[in-house]
Amino acid sequence: MFPSEPQPFLSHPLLANGHVQTLAGMYLPGKKYRYAAVQHRIQLPDGDVVVLHDDRPESWQPGGEMALLIHGLAGCHLSPYMVRIAGKLNEVGIRTFRFDLRGCGAGAGLAKLPYHGGKSDDVRSVLKFLEELCPESSCSAIGFSLSGNMVLKLVGEEAEPLPENLAKVIAVNPPVQLAAAAENISRPSMRVYDRHFVNLLYQQVLHRKKVFPDAPLGAMTAKPRSLVEFDDCYTAPVSGFRDAADYYKQCSAAQFLSGIQIPTTILAAADDPMVPRHCFTDLQISGSVKLHLVPRGGHLGYIARKQTAADRRWLDWRIVEWVTEN
Fold it and tell me: Rounded to an integer, what is the distance from CA 57 to the centroid of its chain?
């Protein structure tokens, strides 16, 4: 079943460029959802532990649909888009699981190794856990930003068979060509974003080293000056790659899109300041993949005019539609 064409996105007139959309998506207030999730700890094959936040609607019954939400770089289960979209899915009866990647959110201090954009095996382990927890239920996997690349890699790579509960995948603003996205964020005009991510990731490394004194540091001897430098001296060597370029080459989802065999939706914006639009040109995709490249929306923004979304959150409602359609 192919995903439906989304209702056209009409940007809020005061949020007419990608940078403003990105910031508004993060900071514009909206409906509050009380945290009431049940936490599950999952031990990964290498001994690290990750955390799932399970929000089960009262109306949900065994065999009902589930959604696995995975945050982006330096995010967690409390990232605003994770909270909003889980809440809206719960309101239509979908049981949601918000996945804190290694060392993030409630998983801080539980993992010695970091996550990265190619950690598809971690997603596979979580899906297998859900298969045991809810054996009669199908699951939609929704990856945001870096995790969008992760879930696309999972369903396109030639590895072991996919968990049978995985019914569809949605990737929002995924950096499917990691090197191009890294080069883009290295530009002087992107310095604020670059420093923001480095600061957050460096704090995670310091906390990890405090909890696990023997945690590897790769080649990092001081705080990196950029995200590319962080990946080059820490993420890549600690994760078994030669350097950042090797990590980006091996883990970019673009090379796996032609192998995808389950219904998959990619949503991206041409004005995304972090993932440039040329990442989505000339892609070799299978017939199971539908790419929606909209003119505006920024990075995880998509704040619309009121007539196109009751609360202006166009992205949230598109995900609800795609998850619930048969």
Answer: 23
pLDDT tens, residue by residue, 275-292: 999 999 999 999 999 999
Beta bridge partners of 95: 66
Q: Locate tokens 């939400």: which residue?
A: 69
Geometric angle at alpha carbon 89, from 144 and 110, rounded to 5°: 50
Contact 142, 319 (CB under 8 A): yes
pTM recorded for the entire structure? 0.96
- pLDDT of 135 higher than 80: yes
Domains of the chain: 18-177+253-324 (3.40.50.1820), 178-251 (no CATH)
Q: How confident is the model at residue 10 (pLDDT cuts 50, 70, 90)?
A: confident
Q: Where are the beta strands (DSSP E) in the chain?
A: 38-43, 49-55, 66-70, 95-100, 139-144, 166-172, 264-269, 289-294
How far is it, in rounded angstroms, from Cα 224 to Cα 124? 31
Residues found in the chain = 326
CA torsion, ordered 67, 293, 281, 255, to nearest 10 deg: 0
